[in-house]
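Revision sheet: C-alpha cells.
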Amino acid sequence: MRTTVAVLGATAALTAAQLGLAGTASAASTAGAETQAGQAAANCPIKITYLTKFYVDNNNWVTNGGLRFGLKNSSKKVTFKDVSLKVTNTKSLRFGKATVTTRPIGRITQKTNQVVKIAAKTLKPGKSAAFKVSTHMLRTDKYEVKFEVYGKTTDGKKWGCAVDQGTWGTVKH
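Predicted:
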C-alpha cells in the first residue's frame, strides 16, 4: 500500500530576495512522479525543478527512488559555469543515497542525511543538472527543504540570482 502525497506546486517568480515556492495542493492521479520547474526572473534563466507529486510506502519512504531536484538552464544563448544546487532539509525528512540523473552533466559534491548538493562544471543552454535522493519522511503532513543556487557566467562573473532561493514543501492530504 502506498500513500499519495500532493506537494504545493505553483511557483512565484524570482525576486531579488528569493524564489517562493507555494500554492495549492492537488491529488496525484497517476502512478508516476511529476516535476515542475520554478519560474525565473528576466535576469536569471536558471530554474529549479522538483517533484509536484510522489508516493510514500507504508514505512514513509518515497517510492520510485526518492525525491528529485535539479536545475535547468532555460537560456537560449548563455552558458553558466560552476553551477550548483544545494537542497537542505529544514523539517521532517532524512536523505539516503543520492544519484545524479543527468549523466554526464553534474555530480554530487555533498551528501549527508540533511543536505544534498549537485554541481555542474558547465551548464549549456537548455541543459539540466539533476539528482534523485532516497528520502524517508518523518511526517507526511509537514515537511520542508531549502534551496541555494550558485553559479557564474562564462566570463567568471556571478549571475544576478539570489543565493537564497526559497523553500519547497508542506503537504495537504
